[in-house]
């Protein structure tokens, strides 16, 4: 495979794998990263190796020596860039490094303003070398999971026995194919146009002059950013890809088909004989680009590109929020999911992509947890829902669909159940299994319409939402909270003997006697302290592994953990991990009305957003919590709102459980960033109101004025 002039250094498994591979006409499945993402590398490899039809050959691009060494030890084909290559100039230099080393002070570089740009250059160097060797390259990010190997349905005519689906007849000839952040599946199914940002999570580069021209143009776009004073996390290889890959629709398909065949792209002469109306359009750049390294001298050419459909090539919103895998027709070839890309997530930090991993676990698409993840300790899980239908209907009657307060009031009992479940798991020395969570409003950084992303107005509410929609998973991990995802007990890796050895815990109603224990059930008296539950259950079921309890029974226990210090420590952690800072800005209530000359530092320009999430009531710290009833009948918050009608909310909870600032009710009451010149008039207006505060918004009707 490797030409003498190649800038790739193959490890022994890769050298053996590619010794007999003819690059021309071969699609190489490729990913790329650093050793800091090793578990994602392993997860990507697992699903690539498990996919049917097979995804072969595949190669891991290592941006540092540690990843290359780890892949060698695992027997995984991998390659590095030779150390002599300067990815900025693409010239050779002298060095003592064994391979090219990507260095950063961040472990997870996705949002580093300059390091991620360099990562893009290293990635492009890999792509250039592989294309130059003659391969077609199908690159996917490390946070992409391959559910199966049916990529050919959308990308290639090379196998006459397995032609692409009719909608992909033209797509399967384009130089470049790429996934998108499109959310509207109906619009996307029409096949017309590009209406969303291109997402480089999955990119197919055909071994053509056009694909090479795109890669070199992409590389040049990155080079132009070097040393830029205004680099931000939003200037990265993907944003620059979007600038480079643009153009108009190819109209004369027959002429284009002839030119493709003349270039050697596999396709029958009648490829477009029966195009459906919703065939996916192909676009062509208006300008030409050189398909060679600078100074090599070559004729410039245009390139063609198309977008991959969002139902087969899913993202974080389409998979987790819209559930495309369950939509009508999901089993049909043109709709069957092929990949899942963990996008639209929250909770990632510079140390680790916590939100991505949590979503992968919830979808049972995380294959690298050790066996003890499924076997250690006792697992405490909620049986059934955390709220009842009557409560839901009460909230629905009070708050219209557009109001984020519906979301906040429905979140409160769920957050209380998480608190109680975690408290019980802590008391018995076990591990909490997160309950199934429901969102009644989509989480979106801009204005919402009917509590939905305005690009997906047909989306159903409520939806079973991932944990990171409601909680910052990095906080849970930083505090080393013992918990598992809500799908944990149904995970195929869960040993049958653990899953089967479960006990259902019930708690007698107030004033009633507890019933006798059963072979797989234990009933305890009303008000039993959580601190006693483990001992009492073990008396009749000493080997139990899973403890399940319904929310009504959970609430009849006394929330006493055995000592004041234990309760105090639990409360500090609880406040930190159950507080979030998410905003929901309804367009129906001034959530997106940016007036002319908008100034975010002017409270009279501020838009209206409902902020959450507030932590639930903490556990009592007094030893008489059970005898007084204070540990059973808590004074609960009715909703999880922090700032109810404000552009920015300064309320946060620190790692030690302390709050930063008091909760404010409107923009006039102040927020971090308000220009002080507006403070006098804001104070005068507040002084004229009852109690010197804005009225607390009712949440069921728009307010006026917007501030």
From TrEMBL:
Instruction: State the Pfam families in the record.
Output: Nucleotid_trans
List the record's Gene Ontology CC terms alphabetically.
Golgi apparatus
Q: Where is the Nucleotide-diphospho-sugar transferase domain?
A: 56-349
Q: Name one GO molecular function term.
A: arabinosyltransferase activity
What protein is this chain from? Nucleotide-diphospho-sugar transferase domain-containing protein
- Organism the protein comes from: Emiliania huxleyi (strain CCMP1516)
């Amino acid at each position: 495979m490797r030409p003498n002039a190649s800038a790739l250094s193959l490890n022994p498994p890769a050298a053996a794998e590619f010794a007999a591979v003819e690059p021309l006409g071969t699609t190489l499945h490729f990913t790329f990263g650093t050793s800091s993402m090793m578990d994602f590398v392993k997860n990507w490899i697992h699903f690539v190796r498990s996919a049917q039809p097979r995804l072969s050959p595949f190669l891991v691009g290592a941006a540092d020596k540690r990843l290359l060494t780890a892949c060698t030890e695992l027997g995984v084909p991998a390659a590095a860039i030779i150390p002599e290559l300067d990815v900025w100039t693409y010239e050779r230099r002298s060095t003592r490094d064994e391979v090219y080393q990507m260095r950063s002070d961040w472990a997870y570089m996705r949002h580093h303003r300059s390091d991620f740009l360099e990562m893009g250059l290293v990635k492009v160097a890999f792509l250039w070398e592989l294309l130059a060797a003659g391969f077609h390259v199908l690159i996917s990010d490390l946070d992409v999971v391959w559910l199966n190997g049916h990529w050919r349905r959308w990308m290639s005519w090379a196998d006459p026995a397995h032609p692409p689906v009719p909608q992909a007849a033209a797509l399967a000839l384009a130089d470049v194919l790429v996934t998108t952040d499109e959310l509207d599946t109906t619009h996307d199914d029409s096949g017309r146009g590009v209406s969303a940002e291109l997402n480089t999570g999955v990119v197919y580069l055909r071994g053509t002059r056009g694909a090479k021209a795109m890669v070199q143009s992409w590389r040049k776009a990155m080079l132009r950013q070097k040393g830029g004073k205004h680099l931000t996390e939003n200037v990265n290889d993907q944003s620059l890809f979007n600038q480079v890959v643009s153009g108009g629709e190819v109209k004369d398909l027959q002429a284009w088909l002839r030119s493709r065949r003349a270039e050697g792209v596999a396709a029958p002469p009648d490829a477009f004989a029966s195009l459906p109306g919703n065939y996916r359009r192909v676009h062509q750049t208006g300008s030409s680009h050189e398909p060679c390294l600078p100074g090599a001298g070559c004729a410039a050419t245009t390139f063609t590109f198309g977008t991959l459909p969002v139902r087969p090539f899913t993202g974080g919103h389409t998979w987790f929020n819209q559930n495309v895998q369950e939509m009508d027709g999901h089993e049909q070839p043109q709709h069957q999911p092929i990949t899942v890309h963990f996008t639209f997530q929250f909770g990632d930090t510079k140390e680790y992509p916590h939100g991505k991993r949590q979503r992968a676990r919830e979808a049972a698409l995380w294959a690298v947890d050790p066996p003890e993840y499924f076997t250690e300790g006792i697992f405490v899980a909620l049986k059934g829902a955390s709220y009842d239908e009557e409560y839901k209907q009460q909230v629905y009657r009070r708050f219209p669909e557009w109001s984020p307060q519906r979301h906040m009031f429905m979140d409160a009992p769920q957050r209380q159940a998480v608190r109680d479940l975690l408290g019980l798991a802590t008391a018995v020395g076990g591990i909490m299994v997160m309950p199934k969570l429901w969102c009644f409003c989509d989480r979106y950084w801009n204005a919402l319409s009917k509590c939905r992303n305005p690009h997906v107005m047909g989306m159903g509410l409520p939806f079973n939402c991932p944990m990171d929609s409601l909680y910052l998973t990095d906080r849970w991990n930083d505090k080393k909270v013992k918990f598992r995802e809500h799908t944990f007990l149904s995970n195929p890796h869960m040993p049958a003997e653990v899953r089967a050895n479960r006990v259902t815990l019930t708690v007698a109603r107030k004033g009633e006697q507890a019933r006798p224990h059963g072979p797989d059930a234990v009933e305890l008296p009303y008000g039993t302290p959580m601190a006693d539950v483990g001992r009492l259950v073990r008396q009749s079921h000493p080997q139990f592994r899973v403890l399940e309890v319904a929310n009504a029974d959970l609430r009849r226990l006394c929330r006493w953990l055995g000592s004041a210090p234990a309760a105090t420590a639990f409360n500090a952690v609880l406040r930190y991990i159950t507080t979030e800072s998410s905003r929901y800005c309804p367009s129906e209530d001034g959530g997106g009305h940016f007036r002319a000359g908008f100034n975010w530092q002017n409270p009279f320009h501020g838009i209206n957003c409902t902020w959450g999430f507030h932590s639930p009531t903490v556990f009592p710290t007094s030893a008489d919590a059970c005898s007084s009833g204070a540990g059973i009948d808590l004074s609960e918050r009715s909703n999880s709102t922090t700032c109810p009608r404000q552009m920015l909310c300064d309320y946060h909870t620190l790692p030690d459980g302390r709050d930063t600032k008091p909760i404010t009710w409107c923009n006039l009451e102040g927020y971090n960033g308000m220009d002080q010149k507006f403070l006098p008039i804001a104070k005068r207006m507040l002084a004229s109101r009852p109690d010197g505060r804005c009225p607390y918004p009712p949440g069921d009707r728009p307010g006026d004025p917007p501030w």
